[in-house]
Amino acid sequence: MKIHQIILALLLLSNPVQTYNQTKTKPNLKKLNWLIGSWTRTNAKPGETASETWKKVSPEKFIGLGITMKGADTVFSEKLQLLVKGNALYYAADVAENKEPTLFKLTDMTANGFVCENTAHDFPKKIVYKRSGNTLKAIISGDGKSIDFNFIKNTK
């Protein structure tokens, strides 16, 4: 009889855990909808212009493009993504110098920013986006080095 009671108790205790796991929602990018649109860099090098543009593909994927121009010439270009992979969110940077996109795991997200990290990457190891109204600061850092990218949102 005791065995039956133990089995029944275990079944009852495991049911709430099962229900929780089944109803747990998949991560999404909803808090980051403010990123969608075109952003112009305000601290580009003299003679250069730079921008980032983000589009929402789905609740689980944004695509972005970062471009730096010098006159009519493209000096730098990177394809960007924010995406759900498994049960985590990632920032992916795809630049010509690398064979594959570099993934940075999203480690913190608020209504006005996010932090992504990949400690195994050479540089950057950390990417931070912070929004204040129509301004945005992206900071890439690692190994004691840090670079700020300041943007203003295009309202057209």
UniProtKB/TrEMBL annotation:
The entry's keywords: Lipoprotein, Signal
Superkingdom, taxonomy of origin = Bacteria
The signal peptide, as residue positions, is 1-19
Please list the residue ranges annotated as the DUF6265 domain. Answer: 33-140
Q: Which Pfam families match?
A: DUF6265
Q: Which InterPro entries match?
A: DUF6265
Q: What is this protein called?
A: Lipoprotein
